[in-house]
Amino acid sequence: MEAKRYPNRLIPKTCWRQNIDIHNLIHQECDVYVARRIDGRREDCVNEEFGPENAFLKSDAFKNSDIPEMSLSLLGALFNPEDLLYRQIKLGMKDWDGKKVRDNALIEKCVMECPDPWFAVAWNVAGLHDQAVPYKKDFSREKDYKNFVEEINRVSHVINMEFEEYRGTADPLVAITKLKHSPSFLNYWHFLFEIFPMGSEKPMMETKSKWEKDLADKVAKQCLRYGFQYADNLQITQLSPSIWRKGLWQCLKTVFG
Length: 257
Known about the structure:
- The protein is of the alpha+beta class.
- Helix content is 23%, strand content 20%.
- The protein starts with 21 loop residues before the first helix and ends with a helix.
């Protein structure tokens, strides 16, 4: 790919903050959105049987296994919905180290254009971050359940239920969703959608076990498959540059050391 075709405004700059504070985004006076490319035709990926206001994203849009660590991009700064045309690969999708990106050589090898058809959807940041999602984890043995409770209590979550009481309760656990700025070498505006199961200090990375699959399904229904908007229909308010730019003094220190 020719370097001139890839938008330079997507490439991180040393005078930009290495991490955008998600709470600063949520507390903006305007609505803030993150977007994602859906590969496929809109009619194949979206069910609008009951009208556009009740539309939901079908499994053709994305699988539940795609949800842990789902990639999104922040709108309202310098990233536009049409920029979802580009897919960063190889080094281009690795975490940015805060240093100057030698963009020309990198773009040649680490960006590809996605073929048609595709369309862009967006979600309000406030509807994805810090959402509580009830779920249930099955235990075949009481010993396994007690070990689980001990681990949860270690990180200050309290469950005080007998094993049989837990088994008879619907969705007694609560996972928390988070949005995290995760700039890559070729997309500064890249965010991750993370799921933190109850008692875990690390986000869920896969959906191999039954409870992980069930939790991903609940997150999908509560946060992602409904409540989306078509990105090309959005009225996007521009964010203050202070959200991502360092202050003048920090910029000078970056440049002159």
